[in-house]
Write a structure and sequence with these properties.
Keywords: Cell shape, Cell wall biogenesis/degradation, Peptidoglycan synthesis, Signal, Transferase. Pathway: Cell wall biogenesis; peptidoglycan biosynthesis. GO terms for molecular function: peptidoglycan L,D-transpeptidase activity; transferase activity. This protein is α+β, with helices and mostly antiparallel strands. The protein is globular and about 40 Å long.
């Protein structure tokens, strides 16, 4: 039994010495290694410029743009053909939406309502635009009787058409000049 104890002690001592030697060798190798090189700032900036833009992460079942999460916002998604009216990120109304055709597209971007007209009639197209909320040039969010009658078979001249008159009337009443309109394809 004493021989086994001596043998066990010897194996343990060899293991400790072996680990120490490995550690010493590793430490010495690390000390001799050159310091890592840092790329110049210009090279880093150039590499960052080549990086593709991060894809926008859309939120929820209506694929909401992150810009729609603060304040009173009419959030219009061309891909889903929906306009979601939100207040501080909370969905109030979801409406079907129709956008401009290929020759008169609805502009993408973040805009502000700069004018409201309850019973507007277009001077250019002589068409009724009830509950119009203008956000970009002559483009407005408004009720469209044509959209209600014909659905997606037609297109607007750049406006954001809504076919639910009762809901757009409520949104018109709640919307203030300066409220956001976000139009995107997501």
């Amino acid at each position: 039994m004493s021989i086994l104890r001596k043998l066990g002690a010897t194996v343990t001592a060899v293991a400790i010495v072996g680990v120490g030697a490995l550690t010493v060798g590793t430490t010495a190798a690390n000390a001799a290694a050159p310091a890592p090189q840092v790329a110049p700032k210009a090279a880093v900036a150039k590499a960052a410029a080549k990086k593709p833009a991060a894809k926008t992460k859309y939120i929820g079942r209506y694929h909401l743009d992150p810009r729609c999460m603060k304040g009173r916002v009419m959030c219009a998604n061309k891909k889903t053909r929906k306009m979601v009216y939100l207040v501080n990120g909370k969905t109030i109304y979801v409406l079907d939406a129709r956008f401009g055709g290929s020759k008169t597209p609805t502009r993408n971007g973040q805009f502000k309502v700069y004018r409201k007209s309850k019973n507007h009639v277009s001077k250019l197209y002589k068409s009724k635009m009830p509950y119009a909320m203008f956000f970009s040039g002559g483009q407005a969010v408004h009720y469209s009787s044509d959209f209600k009658a014909r659905g997606y078979r037609g297109a607007s001249h750049g406006c954001l058409n809504i076919r639910d008159k009762a809901k757009i009337a409520k949104i018109f009443a709640a919307t203030k000049i300066g409220d956001k309109v976000v139009v995107y394809s997501g």
